[in-house]
Structure formats: structure tokens, C-alpha cells
């Protein structure tokens, strides 16, 4: 796209020029960033700070060379997203090291440092946009979603085939249930037919047994009556004894029962 071919050199021009100047003449920038570099090295672990050079001028040259390389890559479109990311990282260090406006006491110098600080913040925003620019190509997130959708579609297409070739446990259970219901209906119809066929025979058998039972009852009726007559005095005596006992018990508890009745009546009436 023609816009990228124009905008990228415009954005990278300041980094190429200022980075080349820092490589040639690092003294002024090193003096300004000396305190920041020293405090940053002291904050790092000894294993890291021992590897980095402690000379501010050397660090300024390294940062300037990184800006020149990143600016050229961005201007020519060679790995532009990587170049923009590297330039943004180097610009953060340059901004806090070279433009600490909060430390200035002179109003004019403070205003100048603040303007440069905000300019670098704006440049960082532009570099972040360039780092996220995919030039119309699908991003990694988009490609990941497309692959996931394709996998889901393939799985959905494979499921009907698997269902046709291998019945599921649910289908087997439904089939077994239907077979059992059909068998039960057949057995019920058979039982009803047998019952209808044998109904006269069963009724005749019931009449014969009822006559037999009645005959046996008539035969044993005198014997049962004789036993009842023999036991009658004993049963009557037991009834009299129990009735006297029950009457005595009722007499003892009559006041209590009457009092309970009166309380219940007063409660209902109120």
C-alpha cells in the first residue's frame, strides 16, 4: 500500500538522524543520562549489571546504533513490525533518561524538556500502531480462530458417519425398550385370551368348590355349636370380671375425665 511506503520513512526519519548523531557525539547525551543510567544499573541484579557496560557514553552509542538499524528496517519495510517494536523500546529509555522535566527548576528548561517528553510519548504511540499493523494479513488470533472453526466443522461432519456405522448406547437402549414393550404386549394378549377361554371352566370349578365348602360347614355346624355351648359360661364369667374392672377404672378416672372435658369446652367456647 502506498500509504505505508510514505508513512514508514516519515516515522523512522527522526530515529535514523538522532541515532546517527548519538553514535558520533555521545558526550552530551551521556552527561544528561548519567544519573539515570547509574540508578538503573544499581537496580538490576548483579548477574545482569555485570554483563552490561557501565560507561554512559558506550550505552548511548549502543542505543543510537539500535535506533539507526531499527529506523532503516522500518523505512525500507524489512521486518517492519519487529523494527517498530525495537524502536519503541529504545525510545522509552531515551525519554526517561534524556528528558526528566520533573527534575528541572528553571521554568524555560522545564517547559522544553516537557515538550520533548510528550513528543517522544506521541512517537511511541505511533510505533505501537506500526508494530500492530499486519498489512491486511490475518493476525495470529484470526488464524487461530479459523483453525478452531475448521476443526469443529470437521468434527461435526464426521459425527453423522460415526453414528451410522456404530449405533450409540442411547440408540441401543431405545431399541431394547421398544422390543421389551412389544413382547409385554404380546404376553398380555396371550394371557387375556387364555383367561377368556378358561373362564367357563374356572366358574364351574368355583361352583363345585363352593358347594363342597358349604357341605363341610353344614357337617361341622353341630360340633361348632356344641363347643360354643361348652365355653359359654367361661366366656360370660370372663366378661363379668372385665366389666367390673372396667367400671372401677372408669369410676376412678371420672373426675379427671370430666375436668379435661370442661377445659376443652371452655377453650372451644372462648
TrEMBL record:
Record keyword ATP-binding present = no
**Family designation:** Belongs to the DoxX family.
- Please tell me the species this chain comes from: Gordonia desulfuricans
Q: What is its main location?
A: membrane
Give the subcellular location: Cell membrane
SUPFAM superfamilies in the record: Apolipoprotein A-I
Residue runs in coiled coils: none
Against InterPro entries, the record matches this protein to: DoxX, DoxX-like_oxidoreductase
Which PANTHER family does the record cross-reference, listed alphabetically?
INNER MEMBRANE PROTEIN YPHA-RELATED, OXIDOREDUCTASE CATD-RELATED
Stated membrane topology is: Multi-pass membrane protein
Keyword Transmembrane helix attached: yes
Q: What's this protein's name?
A: DoxX family membrane protein
What Gene3D superfamilies does this protein's entry cite? Helix hairpin bin
One Gene Ontology cellular component term attached to this UniProt record is:
plasma membrane
Q: Which UniProt keywords apply?
A: Cell membrane, Membrane, Transmembrane, Transmembrane helix
A Pfam family hit = DoxX
